[in-house]
Extradiol aromatic ring-opening dioxygenase
Amino acid sequence: MAARAPIWSIAHGGPPTLFDTEHKAHKAWVDVGRAIVASQARALVVVSAHWEAEQPGTVLVNEQQAPKQIYDFYNFPKHYYDQRFDTHTPQWLSDVVVQHLSGSSFAPQRVPRGPDHGVWVPLKAAFGAAAPLPLVQVSLPAPSGDALTDARAALALGEALRGLREQGIAVLGSGQPVHNLRDAFGGGGDGSYGGPFLRAHSDALLASGHARWDAAEALTKRPEFKRAHPTTEHFLPALVALGAADDAEPTKELLFIDEGALGWAMYQW
């Protein structure tokens, strides 16, 4: 029987942080990479902000064994598009994930799909040229148009993935606790909402027991929420990670950086 695998929630920001090796987030990615290797996990399931299912009640699971990474960003210098990060999704891994999710409230659908920048940018910093263990990406549930509904679906997806940990398969969510690119780069606002929301976000995830589920859902009702998350996708991967944890497992905060409209926090269970 494999040892129970850990969970991580990371913030991935944007591609520039891949090259900013002195940024605290970059250093945190490196630390997470070391922790993943040290955990001796058999494989890694990654849920990124940049892949959402289209049909309600479904999630998508990559079945491409040697997936080609996706450069899902625009107007960056050429060397950004020269970056390579090799991943491998063996048949057994996609089979195990699909079989496991088939017993949940989500209907898994197999699709060929490469890792987006929410996966390969932080993991390239963490691991270098290639992932040292098998990796499969699973999508977020389909967006509903209601933030609270989306939050509950993300927590439920995490709970559905939880049993994979008993098979030595670690879970990693990749999003951003505060993510308003217009304000961060376009001068749309001062980002003063970012700090209060980031603190509330960490307080929610650091709460004890099942109360942190309620606290995470309540974040969608905070006055800063729509400024911190004009759309919900970057908010949700942390909730998938939280949902994969048992109530008795304490949350360890790995990083907390208030950068206004682009706030960072990372966690481990």
User: Anything to note?
Assistant: Strands lie at 7-11, 43-48, 58-62, 107-111, 135-137, 169-175, 178-179, 252-257, 262-268. Residues 34 and 197 are 29 Å apart (CA to CA).
